[in-house]
Write a structure and sequence with these properties.
The protein is α+β, with helices and mostly antiparallel strands. It folds into two domains: about 120 residues, no CATH class; about 120 residues, Alpha-Beta Plaits (2-Layer Sandwich). About 25% of the residues lie in helices and about 35% in strands. The chain is built from eight helices and 17 strands. The strands form four sheets. The protein has a six-stranded antiparallel beta sheet. Strands 9-10-13-14-17-15 form a six-stranded antiparallel beta sheet. Strand 3 and strand 4 form a beta hairpin. The protein is globular, with a radius of gyration of 20 Å.
């Protein structure tokens, strides 16, 4: 079958899958440009972490682990002409301006700057960034910009943390999804059911479009929770109301992307209470969003 006889559906499939004709990226060169090693994610994504382990941040007396709410990151997806990337840099208020200036000079787009939490002991802001082109050049720009902050260099692999002081099986059952232990936290990533695109390119859930839920044990079966719900406009207030009814604060509501379709809102939350009680409240909110269900986990 020559190209002119391909079915229309097949041609549409090629157009709608940006990685179908993607170039092969030498990730070792991108690793070298950024100055740290990335990790493979679902959907062909290559992700880099920039945790702010240098910051001692508390909220309501709870010391925030980097993986709870201080984990900056960028993720690359190969395209037909290089790669696109999206990310979220965790910065202090005095770091915003110099980092932004260097990113702009290197052609990186800024899509949002805002808080995710409230009552932090140290002013912490989140700069959402994106770009498209040569991944090595973009990686070098990111490295140069991050060097203007106090983001620490990559740390040596940490020893295994102690077992989580949480009923993880009970939390799984309450939420209807299977979580993963990571860096002293219990984490969930719940993808949206619909496809989300940015600049007409499909964005995999591993690039920040999945609902993120993090549990950090605080003793006695309690946990501090934070993360963000990724929502359509019509879902925002029903989910907000459900969270508040279950004692979970909504700490921020905003966009992370500019040209996304459908346009999504990101609702960040916080609570420190009985972990099972919080899991039930989060489940009530999840049930109001158009998410992919996990039949093997949900009753």
């Amino acid at each position: 079958m020559n190209r002119t006889t391909l079915p229309i559906a097949a041609l549409m499939g090629l157009v709608s899958s940006p990685w179908a004709l993607a170039v092969e990226v030498d990730w070792s060169k991108v690793d070298q440009a950024i100055g740290r090693k990335g990790a493979e994610q679902a959907g062909g994504v290559h992700k880099y972490g920039f945790p702010r382990s240098d910051l001692n941040v508390t909220v309501d007396g709870v010391a925030i682990k980097p993986s709870l709410a201080l984990g900056g990151w960028v993720a690359f997806l190969p395209t037909s002409d290089g790669a696109m990337f999206m990310g979220d840099l965790v910065l202090t208020d005095t770091e915003i301006s110099p980092v932004m200036q260097r990113l702009i000079a290197g052609g990186v787009q800024i899509s949002a700057i805002h808080n995710h939490l409230i009552r932090t002991s140290v002013p912490v802001l989140y700069m959402h960034v994106s770009g498209h082109g040569d991944p090595v050049k973009m990686g070098q720009t990111l490295r140069d910009a991050i060097a203007l902050s106090k983001v620490p260099p990559p740390a040596s692999p940490a020893s295994a943390p102690p077992p989580l002081d949480l009923d993880t099986a009970g939390i799984d059952k309450a939420l209807g999804y299977k979580g993963n232990a990571n860096g002293g936290l219990y984490q969930f990533s719940v993808p949206r059911a619909e496809s989300i695109s940015e600049d007409a390119m499909a964005v995999p859930s591993s690039m920040g479009t999945a609902i993120a839920i993090n549990f950090q044990p605080t003793g006695g079966g309690n946990a501090a929770i934070t993360g963000d719900f990724v929502l359509l406009g019509k879902e925002v207030n029903p989910v907000l109301k459900a969270l508040r009814q279950h004692g979970i604060e909504v700490t921020a509501l905003h966009s992370h992307m500019i040209d996304d379709s459908p346009h999504m809102f990101f609702m960040h939350f916080w609570a420190n209470d009985d972990a099972m009680k919080l899991a039930q409240g989060l489940r009530a909110a999840l049930d109001l969003a158009n998410v992919k269900h996990a039949p093997e986990a949900r009753p």
